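Fig. S4 source data, part A: sequence.
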Amino acid sequence: MEKYLSDPLFLREIIMDHYQNPRNKHLYEDGEHFHEKHMVMDSCIDDITVQAKIKNGVIDEVVWDGTACVISTASTSIMTNLLKGKTVDEAMALIQTYNKMINLEDYDVNSMAEANAFNQVGKQANRIGCATIGWRAITDIIVESEEQNV
């Protein structure tokens, strides 16, 4: 993956694939087994809901739905693929790594998989919110679920 990070066409293909064919884009009606977070961006069309089922410290399921721009749709789609099946600790570490990448800090390229497509978003301040909306939602969900289990 590292050799492709400097290829804007390859990275654009990843983003467009997840925008045109978003993964895990649906919500469950059974709210009692899912934690849910609704997020809205004032400066964009982004209005999404993220749901996660966390069982025994593992993210069993993470889905989302709503209206979102290309960057939000693709980043949230990639996030759901990346975090599903991870422990809460692993997920929080990946979220921290993603945020380092978005803030143009050194980060573990290998752990980000397709999320590396957003490695230049930090250069466009107006897109940071779009690239992080789903990630902020899952962070809130994890924190809230941990607080409920204490």
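Fig. S4 source data, part B ends here. The mean pLDDT is 93.
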